[in-house]
C-alpha cells in the first residue's frame, strides 16, 4: 500500500482525474495552504488532495452572521467539520496539481489545478494551520469490456448533450472533441453530467473503469429520457468546472 500525506482541501463538489479545478481561496486556513504550496519549487508538482464534504455544504462560517450578529465565527483548520473531521468527508478523493497559484493584493488566491489520480482518505490531521491527510493511492483498473462500454457511453453522452442543449442550439461538444480512452471517457462524462454530489461521488469511487461506464450508461439513458419530456429546459455549459468559494 502506497501512502502519502498532503494538504487537504474539502469541497462541496467532486474532482475527477484529468479535470480542471478553478478555486477562489479566501479563508485563512486555505490561504495558509496556498502559501505553503508556493514554497514548493516551480519544477515540482504543487499537490493537495480534494475530498467532497458528506453533507453537501460546509458549515464553517467565514464571518459573523445570523442569527446572532455579535457571535464570533469558529476558526481553525477543522472549523465546521466537527471533532472528527474524517467523518465529515467522503473516503475517496482526488489529488490536485496546482499549475497556477496567484496571490491577490488582498491576500486571497486565484488557483487553477488539475485532478491527477484517486486516493482513499485514511486519516486527517488538524494540528497545523490547515488540514492534512494521510492518503492511499488507488489504481485505476480497466475491468471487463471497458472499450465497448466507452463507445456506448460516448454515443449516449452525445444524445444527452443534444437534448440538454435543445433542438435549436448547437451541441456543446462535437464528436471530434471527445476522447476514446475508456478511463478518460469515464471521468469526463462523470464530471460533465448534471448530477448531484452523492452520485458523482459514487462514480469517482467505482471499483474499475468498466463499472463506472456501466453506471454512466444507465444514468445517461435515464437522464436523457427525463430531459426529453422537458423541452423548455435551459441549456447548460457542460464544459465549465465549478469554482469553489472556500
UniProtKB/TrEMBL annotation:
PANTHER family: ATP-DEPENDENT PROTEASE LA (LON) DOMAIN PROTEIN. InterPro entries: Lon_prtase_N, Lon_prtase_N_sf, PUA-like_sf. Pfam families: LON_substr_bdg. Residues 6-224 form the Lon N-terminal domain. This is LON peptidase substrate-binding domain-containing protein.
Amino acid at each position: 500500500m502506497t501512502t502519502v500525506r498532503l494538504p487537504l482541501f474539502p469541497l462541496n463538489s467532486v474532482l475527477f482525474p484529468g479535470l480542471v479545478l478553478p478555486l477562489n481561496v479566501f479563508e485563512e486556513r486555505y490561504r495558509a495552504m496556498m502559501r505553503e504550496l508556493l514554497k514548493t519549487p516551480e519544477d515540482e508538482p504543487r499537490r493537495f488532495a480534494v475530498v467532497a464534504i458528506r453533507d453537501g455544504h460546509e458549515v464553517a462560517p467565514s464571518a459573523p452572521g445570523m442569527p446572532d450578529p455579535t457571535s464570533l465565527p469558529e476558526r481553525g483548520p477543522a472549523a465546521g467539520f466537527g471533532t472528527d473531521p474524517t467523518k465529515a468527508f467522503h473516503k475517496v478523493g482526488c489529488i490536485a496539481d496546482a499549475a497556477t497559484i496567484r496571490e491577490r493584493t488582498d491576500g486571497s488566491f486565484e488557483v487553477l489545478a488539475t485532478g491527477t489520480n484517486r486516493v482513499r482518505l485514511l486519516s486527517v490531521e488538524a494540528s497545523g494551520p490547515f488540514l492534512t491527510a494521510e492518503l492511499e493511492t488507488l489504481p485505476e483498473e480497466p475491468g471487463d469490456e471497458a472499450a465497448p462500454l466507452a463507445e456506448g457511453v460516448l454515443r449516449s453522452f452525445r444524445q444527452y448533450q443534444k437534448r440538454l442543449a435543445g433542438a435549436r442550439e448547437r451541441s456543446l461538444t462535437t464528436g471530434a472533441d471527445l476522447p476514446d480512452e475508456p478511463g478518460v471517457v469515464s471521468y469526463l462524462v462523470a464530471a460533465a453530467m448534471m448530477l448531484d454530489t452523492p452520485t458523482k461521488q459514487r462514480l469517482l469511487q467505482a471499483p474499475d473503469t468498466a463499472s463506472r461506464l456501466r453506471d454512466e450508461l444507465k444514468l445517461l439513458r435515464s437522464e436523457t429520457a427525463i430531459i426529453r419530456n422537458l423541452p423548455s429546459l435551459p441549456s447548460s455549459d457542460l464544459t465549465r468546472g465549478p469554482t469553489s468559494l472556500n
